[in-house]
Amino acid sequence: MKSSHVSFSYLGSAEGRAMLLSISMAAAIILIKGAAYFLSGSMAIFSDFVESGVQFPVIAFAVYCLYLRHLPPDENHLYGHGKIQFVSAALEGGLVIGASLLIVYQTTLSIITGYQLDDVTSAAGLALIAGVLNGVVGWYLIRTGRRVNSIILVADGKHILSDFVTTAATLTGAVSAMLTGWLVLDMLAAYAAGVYILFVGLKLVREAMGGLMDEVDRDVDRIVRDVLQSEANEHAWDYHALRHRSEGDRHWVEVHLVFQKNATLEEAHDEAEHLEDELRSALNQPVILTTHLEPEGREADVDPVTGEKPA
Q: Within 13 Å, how many C-alpha atoms sit on residue 236's CB side?
């Protein structure tokens, strides 16, 4: 891999600044929530601490994934390194699922062995500060990620926002248990947090697998087909064997264009370049278009979905 000429200069971009903020806040929040758990002994607050605990290694890996994503194509990766974003999102989802299972296990074990609440008031104050910080950072990451089309930032932001929701729920359970003396409220809050985190992790993994498997984005598919049909009607050509896939921040489109017999190769080439410009404008993202040019009446015998010739 020819990475020696590529630096971490992308960290100065909006995407890089957001990731550096995320990793800095993750370290601080882990310390805050860890202190809150040890002060209170609350299993609800423990569940919140565990979820935050997976953020730091995930974000550290995401920084490396962003570095890979910005590497240019090379002889071993002819299509570039964009799909590493989906790997990062899948890892994050997997660690979130692991955190949820740990929460359920530790809560069950504590119920069996017995536990009691200590200084919940001080712990609640610390957890509240961490929760507010998570809410602000999560919102910022999702907003920035969607603006720059970064799957890594959006996945990280969703995880952090789920942490914010978990903090609110677990604080409610811990404080309610302290005020009423009903320890079961603390236990239920911990279990609820574990189940909620589990579904967040499963959703992240599902979305990441869809990206790795080139699952069709229906909105993108509609835009691509609308542009193709509009251009075909305007310039008197036809198309078939359309395929496209997305890397989050760019799209690869393959299509067979059928021109009238009297069209020159130069005219067909110009039409293909114009089509690429129109797709890029409609999607508002980089587009790599690969076309197979065919004369009318000589269309290749290919599968209309896969674009491959039948055996």
A: 6
